[in-house]
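Handout, section B. The chain below has 149 residues.
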Amino acid sequence: MPTKEILNRRARHDFEVVDTLEAGIALTGTEVKSLRLGKASLQGAFARVEREEVWLHGAHIEEYAQGNRHNHDPKRSRKLLLHREEIRKLRQGAALKGLALVPLKMFFNARGYAKVVLGVCRGKAHSDRREDLRARDAEREIARLSRRR
């Protein structure tokens, strides 16, 4: 069965990543099978610390095609598995003004466990996004010119 990395491409465009942290994710059987097929999306997803637990909201994992009536709800909130110290660190990071917990990617590690990379992020202003695009275009142009030589 192919395993695919699910990326949140908009996250790095819309946010400046201050810090990252890898967390386990509690899934049901059909969610694991669907995730292994790469049938998931992190667009619009976020994490929140609630009563000393971290929950992932808004992540979409499609229903498993061969699942039965006990298939999972695609948009349900999922618990993230972290140590107490890591949760405390996330709570402090998210408590600062303007910071959010955004999932950057979801994948399976070498041992077969589902993982989520969470970013403690600060929202970018519209002008910052434009500046990033200009810098990326300039780098592309330089690379193109150097290839011609």
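Note. The helical segments are 9-14, 29-36, 84-95, 126-148. Compare this with the example in section A.
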